[in-house]
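Tokens help. One example:
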Amino acid sequence: MAKPSSLLDTRVVYCGDNLEQLRKLPDACIDLIYIDPPFNSNRTYEIFWGETKEKRSFDDRHESTRAYIEFMRPRCVELSRVLKKTGSLYVHCDWHASHYVKVMLDQILGETNFITEIIWHRALAKGLAFKSIPNNHDTLLLYGGGGETTFNRPYNPYDLENLDAKTAGKYSHHDPDGRLYQLCDLTNPNRNRPNLTYEFLGHKKVWRWTRERMQEGYETGIVVQPSPGAVPRMKRYLDEQEGRPIDSVWTDIPPINSQAKERLGYPTQKPLKLLERILEISSKPNDIVLDAFCGCGTTLVAAQTLGRQWIGIDISPTACRVMAKRLRDVCKLREDENFWLNGRGFIVRDLPWTEKQLRAIPPFEFENWAVIALGGIPNKTQVGDMGIDGRIYPVGSEPSAAGKEAGELDFMDDWYPIQVKQMDKVGRPDIDSFEAAMMRTKRKKGFVVGFDFSSDAITEISRFFKSEHMVIVPLTVREILDETIAQRLA
């Protein structure tokens, strides 16, 4: 492995909101970006994580395409800023939002920097969808940074045992040992080449090769006369060719199945081969690769394996711990500050805040931390929020046709309010205030975050449910830090 970059820290996993971390990176510092952000889809995952067998529920809570795009836009602006002009950006989407994502990326990176749309055919359809065509592919949108991007043409090797009709027709000759070849023209299309004009095996022509090279090829059996007196031709062997060029439809990389050795149980884990192909196409050894939604770390493993520098960001402390273990186990990297300083190990930064740290940060920063940790969207305004600091959008929310006033990407009024209190104990008056906000906005369920709750507050939450049939879920900071809240968010 080559030396790390002198411009910025690499071989680092950052735990936290990627928007905050991206803003710390310098302009035009990344060679290749791959992101696989949470899809705008109606899927709930029950998984077991790594060695601890910690059961967690993962919900995609983006209420609609509009909320998804609002979440992604500022992050894509930062990704565009840190991308080198010679760099490439891959955005992995599924069918729910890929078209809207492309419009957004065209606006941010420029339509002229769109390179191609790659279709990854994940698997054959398992059954017939009711009154629909089964969706069995993902989309990867590829953009350049504005300059001449790195591009290494990918090939699939020929399957010599099962050749398609076209290839078999071209390579129709074979040697006694069975090697397949085709016969290729040796004459030069440029007829004005006196130095390459000579007679060979009874034929005076303008040849592609010099006389010496032609003679050497004839002696080694590469140059042959197909029949007595015929014009000499060259043997081109099939097993010496690079293979069939890979196009924009990828059908040869299956998804992670239940028996795969690399399977970790992460709900949207992508195969290592997929990321290796992306890195081989659009980067060079020692280039800097960034994954800002790196989940279980497949991009980082691929980058380390292929000799690239890498940076990973993920908001989930559990995910960061899983990818660190994977880097240790698969890549044999040491998670050690001293080794990292000497260019050999890696580090994980910004793992969960302590309660002491969270008590000390500014109130609005604390509110944003809590809302994002719950999978919600913070309010844009910091004042006049009417007692609601953020919103969680439940699985199942769909865009609705609400007329001109709402706009073409308007969505259903389906969300849960979040109230965040940076205090030792949330009391009865705080719950009363949140109840008023819930009734005013006609919410049936809401979440309150605090360091602890008084007995009066818990009693009032119970009374409110019995009298109004409205649910308030109290969540402590410790529960969030310990990641024991998944079922209570459902």
Observations:
- Residues 62 and 68 are 6 Å apart (CA to CA).
